[in-house]
Specification:
- It is built from seven helices and seven strands.
- It has 186 residues and is an alpha+beta fold.
- Strands 4-3-2-1-5 form a five-stranded antiparallel sheet. Strands 6-7 form a two-stranded parallel ribbon.
- A hairpin with a 3-residue loop joins strand 1 and strand 2.
- The longest helix is centred in the last third of the chain and has 22 residues.
- It is elongated and about 60 Å long.
Length: 186
C-alpha cells in the first residue's frame, strides 16, 4: 500500500487510530516543530469533530492502520455470535480491561467487548458504566464495519445486531482462567 512518495497512506484513505476509531486522511503536511521540519498525516474524525496530526514516521508505532480486511471483519462478526465470557473479577478491573480493548483499535478485541456486554431484552438491565462501555464499543465497531463494507453506520449496526441475536448464552469464564487472571494481576 506504499505510494510512490514512500508514504503508507494517501489523502482520502480511511484509517483507524486506536483511541478514536475511523478517520480520513485529509492531507499530508510538512510542519515546523522546534526548528525541525516534520511531515504529518492530518487525520479528521467527523463523528468527533476532531483533527489529529500524526508524524508519518511514527504512524505505525502510534497504531495508525488501514481499515480491517474482509477476513478480519468476518472474524469479528463471528466473534459476536460466540458465547460471552464474563470473568469473575471485580467490575472495576473488567471495566479497565474492556476500555483497554476498545482503545487497542483491534476490531476482534472490540467485538469481544460488544459480545460480552450485550444484553438481550430478556436479560437484566445494565449498569450505567456497562451501558457506556457497550455503546462505545458498539459505535467504534459499527463505524469500522461500515467503512470497510462501504455501507452507512445504521446498516452496520443492523448487521452487528443480527450477529448478536445469533449469539449463545452467557458462559462464566473457566475457574482456571480466573486464577490465571488473578495471578497476572498480582
Amino acid at each position: 500500500m506504499t505510494t510512490k512518495t514512500g508514504l503508507e497512506f494517501k489523502v482520502g484513505d480511511a484509517v483507524v487510530y486506536p483511541a478514536h476509531g475511523v478517520g480520513k486522511v485529509a492531507a499530508v503536511e510538512t510542519q515546523e516543530v522546534a526548528g525541525m521540519s516534520l511531515e504529518v498525516y492530518v487525520v479528521t474524525f467527523d463523528h468527533e469533530k476532531m483533527t489529529l496530526r500524526v508524524p508519518t514516521k511514527k504512524a505505525k508505532t502510534a497504531g495508525l492502520r488501514s481499515l480491517a480486511a474482509d477476513d478480519v471483519v468476518t472474524k469479528a462478526l463471528t466473534t459476536l455470535k460466540g458465547r460471552a465470557r464474563i470473568k469473575r473479577t471485580m467490575w472495576s478491573r473488567r471495566a479497565q480491561e474492556y476500555e483497554a480493548k476498545i482503545n487497542s483499535g483491534d476490531l476482534i478485541s472490540i467485538a469481544e467487548v460488544v459480545r460480552d456486554l450485550h444484553r438481550a431484552d430478556s436479560q437484566p438491565e445494565q449498569s450505567y458504566s456497562e451501558r457506556q462501555l457497550y455503546e462505545s464499543a458498539l459505535d467504534r465497531m459499527a463505524r469500522e464495519v461500515a467503512a470497510a463494507n462501504r455501507i452507512d453506520k445504521t446498516a452496520a449496526v443492523e448487521l452487528l445486531a443480527k450477529s448478536l441475536s445469533a449469539k449463545k448464552a452467557v458462559a462464566p469464564a473457566a475457574p482456571e482462567a480466573d486464577a490465571e487472571a488473578e495471578a497476572e494481576a498480582a
